Recover the amino acids of this structure.
């Protein structure tokens, strides 16, 4: 075993009292998963939910670790892609877990990206009124965002993640070695969520990302570990303060009100748009909307757009293939957002990089004017 595999991983604690858990970040964690599962397993058996792509790449290493530790296991591999987050696949996962005789004292493992983590976590939350699960995220996006914080759910034609539950994992293993198997597009989709943490409340971190972009894209282990740990710590701090998004946790949705509407507009077709790309466009739109409202310096909005474009992410509606709805229809899609309160949209806007805030008083007329300008561009 090489030095990287032996190195102790970094650890981030999500402080939620009796439901607190650790996030481990480092190389070769999938191959050593059983070393960390011992503290959370009540008996030596697990059920693994993954997708067909991840199963080929990472399931053998996980199963070898479980076998070596005498942990019995079964797995179900689903089709990859956002369209798997649906009622039909939720029923399939739940039936599989029941067929395996999974009890409340057993453990379910989500091995994969955000789709698998969200779907598996939701199934675990409703199975026998709640069984424990572990997140082993294999994409950058899931490592820095969806695997942390307990949000689980599925999509519907009405919108993204509208059916779900808060169900915290018992453990998260973020294996940076898994990132080496990602395509550039998949990596960059996750990178958008990393940038988000700098834009919310850490201008210095955004500056660090500007300096270290190439190292991150080229796979430098220290840079990737730092970016993931920094992101996970930022999210853990917010979740510990506001677990169920009654207040400051809404800041983590920077770019998501626009982004989720764009995903719905493309019918969750990953050939056109994946979640991280939607967030990238959404963050640019949030900053440009803030600038239009004279809340944010225009140069900060331009800086955000320039960095995401340099990274290789889409930054405007023109970068999304195919037709998109008009301004009225886009506002209608935003009206299905989970953050709507008394029929009013909640936006995360910005006074500058690292100075995001929750805005519940956005005028529909201003939003329509902004979106119509995008249409005309």
């Amino acid at each position: 075993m090489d030095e990287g595999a032996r190195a102790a991983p970094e650890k981030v604690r999500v402080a939620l009292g009796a439901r607190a858990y650790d996030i481990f970040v480092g190389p070769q964690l999938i191959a050593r998963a059983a070393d960390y599962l011992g503290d959370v397993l009540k008996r030596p058996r697990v059920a693994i939910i993954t997708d067909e792509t991840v199963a080929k790449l990472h399931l053998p290493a996980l199963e070898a670790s479980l076998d070596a530790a005498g942990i019995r296991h079964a797995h179900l591999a689903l089709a990859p892609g956002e369209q798997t987050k649906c009622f039909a696949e939720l029923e399939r996962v739940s039936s599989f877990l029941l067929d395996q005789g999974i009890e409340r004292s057993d453990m379910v493992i989500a091995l994969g990206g955000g789709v698998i983590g969200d779907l598996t976590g939701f199934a675990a939350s409703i199975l026998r009124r709640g069984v424990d699960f572990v997140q082993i995220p294999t994409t950058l996006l899931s490592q820095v965002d969806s695997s942390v914080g307990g949000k689980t759910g599925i999509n519907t034609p009405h919108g993204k993640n509208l059916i779900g539950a808060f169900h915290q994992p018992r453990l998260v293993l973020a294996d940076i070695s898994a990132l080496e198997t990602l395509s550039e597009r998949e990596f960059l989709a996750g990178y958008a969520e990393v940038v988000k943490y700098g834009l919310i409340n850490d201008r210095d971190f955004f500056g660090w990302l500007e300096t270290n972009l190439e190292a991150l894209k080229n796979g430098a282990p220290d840079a990737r570990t730092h970016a993931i740990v920094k992101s996970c710590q930022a999210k853990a701090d917010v979740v510990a303060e506001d677990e169920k998004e009654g207040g400051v946790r809404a800041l983590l949705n920077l770019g998501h009100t626009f982004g989720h509407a764009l995903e719905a507009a493309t019918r969750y077709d990953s050939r056109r748009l994946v979640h991280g790309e939607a967030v990238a466009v959404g963050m640019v739109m949030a900053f440009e909307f803030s600038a239009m409202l004279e809340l944010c310096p225009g140069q900060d909005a331009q800086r955000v757009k320039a960095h995401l474009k340099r990274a290789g992410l889409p930054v405007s509606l023109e970068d999304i293939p195919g037709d998109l709805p008009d301004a009225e229809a886009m506002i209608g899609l935003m009206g299905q957002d989970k953050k709507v309160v008394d029929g009013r949209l909640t936006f995360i806007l910005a006074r500058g990089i690292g100075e995001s805030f929750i805005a519940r008083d956005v005028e529909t007329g201003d939003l329509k004017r902004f979106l119509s300008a995008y249409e005309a561009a």
